[in-house]
Design a protein that fits this description.
Layout (H helix, E strand, L loop, with lengths): L4 H5 L1 H13 L9 H6 L5 H29 L2 H16 L4 H27 L12 H7 L1 H16 L2 H27 L3
Helix pairs in contact: 2-6, 4-5, 4-7, 4-8, 5-6, 8-9
Length: 189
């Protein structure tokens, strides 16, 4: 079970499609997974804030692992960081979206990892290369860092509307920054 050529070449597109599918489950269930479990408790707002605070810490850990992995070239750490990050994001989706995102991303990551191992065994360099400078690694993972900031604002305000706008802006800006970075890093020096 390895990633296809298309999945391997365009991992961000497949990742974003899976995230979109997970959040489209809001059309059928308007309640996020956290509220489904804490909504009927004695202190739902406190528990909600604690759960999303924990999700933010998980996302922060994932973003840090991914950024460090791009700097060091450690593919396994990058995959684990991506999975941690998506666990935090998944807490914002309804239960069906949460499950879809965790299982789908888990399978996608396993398939990509298998493909990378195959490429290495064939003697080719995998898509993930080591970046020389920390700013390059941070820029490469800009979307993750912007989404962590979005979660911090969400935990502080618990404003769904503010989080929705910030998340949309984070995805758009993060995608633009990543595209710019990848295009500029491919130019000959």
């Amino acid at each position: 079970m390895i990633a296809t050529d298309l999945e391997y070449r365009y991992p961000l597109a497949f990742h974003l499609a899976l995230v979109a599918a997970a959040f489209l489950t809001y059309l059928f269930d308007p309640v996020d997974v956290v509220w489904q479990f804490v909504g009927g408790t004695a202190s739902p707002r406190l528990l909600e804030r604690l759960a999303f605070g924990l999700a933010t810490v998980v996302m922060l850990t994932g973003a840090a692992l991914c950024t460090r992995a791009w700097k060091s070239g450690a593919r396994g750490a990058r995959h684990f960081g991506n999975f941690l990050f998506i666990v935090g994001i998944a807490t914002l989706a309804p239960l069906a979206g949460f499950i879809l995102l965790i299982v789908g991303e888990g399978l996608r990551i396993v398939r990509l990892e298998a493909r990378e191992r195959l490429e290495i065994s064939r003697g080719s360099t995998p898509a993930a290369v080591r970046l020389r400078l920390w700013p390059d690694a941070v820029v490469r993972e800009a979307m993750k860092w912007l989404l962590v900031l979005t979660m911090v604002v969400f935990v502080a305000t618990t404003s769904d509307r503010a989080a929705e706008y910030l998340a949309a802006g984070s995805v758009i800006l993060g995608t633009a920054i990543r595209a710019w970075f990848e295009r500029s890093s491919q130019k000959p020096a």
